Amino acid sequence: MTPGKQILVVEDEVITGMDIQNRLKNMGFNVPVVVTSGEDAIKKVKENNPDLVLMDINLNRKMDGIETASQIHSFSDIPIIYMTAYSDEKTLERAKITEPYGYIIKPVKDRELLINIEITFSKHKIQKMTIENEALIQSSKTKSEFLMTMSHELRTPLNAIIGFSDILKRKDFGVLNENQEKYIDYINLSGRNLLQIINDILDISKVEAGKIDISIEKFSIADIINESSALFQDTAIQKQNKVITQIEPGIDFIEADRNRIRQVIYNLVSNALKFSKPGENVIIKARKNGDTVEVSVCDSGIGIKEEDIGKLFKEFEQIDKGVSRQYGGTGLGLVISKKLIELHGGRIWVESKYGEGSTFIFAIPFKPTK
Q: The pTM is what?
């Protein structure tokens, strides 16, 4: 039952209309008025926006029920159920064109009336949800395509800025004074940070649009982990941290997208160092677990509150705006990592204790699943 729904009854036989009105009220529906003409029906729909119209086909007025329904559908998606005592084939064919939700033969029986109404409300709800979902899908697709286009457009001038600042840093065109060197360093670092954000947006847009393909090759997971560790040594030293690797003996070759797995490890280690305090270690571990390889990145940083863990892998969701302002970043790295791992048939998760640090773990099959 869906009590409280407002129903408009359109019936030119006043006694019949009042009888249907009373029966609907006894079922729990709101039936404030019964109208006897198509013109009045259109007016009431515009005024009251009811949830359903019960429409007599054979209205003895200027417009019959079918024409009235057609005009209502021109400005509203309110569902309509037809009622009639008799109709010829031609009339029924006209009625079908207006796509009614139901068709009740007079005299109207309570059970048939209720069943038609309940089915109509259910069907209309499903149709609205379908339309809304299609609109959301199209909106998401349009957004992703726009972000991809803008990311490409932004990367071209930004690469030029970074490239020219690199040339100036090398002093190819003469010696720079102390202030000039400092400002060039700021330009170069800011440009690279902005380029990373743009690359993240481009990646997330490609994933959403289904335009990221993974290129499977055979490679050593140990090599990728050691490369990542070496890449962060200078950054770690500057923060008085260490990046340590612990790779279980016997783990070596896997079949996956080398560059994408490297990207995931890079994101996780970068985050771990970002949130680690001076003097703490970041540990990258790898071990075999059945048919999968598990890679974990462990830090002793600020940790994550239990209620915030569910937000970590959601797009454009930052768990603490104050922390985000202090440490920087968009939070897209974890979202991208999750999607890349899932493309490999794996999963990624986090184990954390607030104030004591976090361990991010991903597991992927040694070989792609068919």
A: 0.55
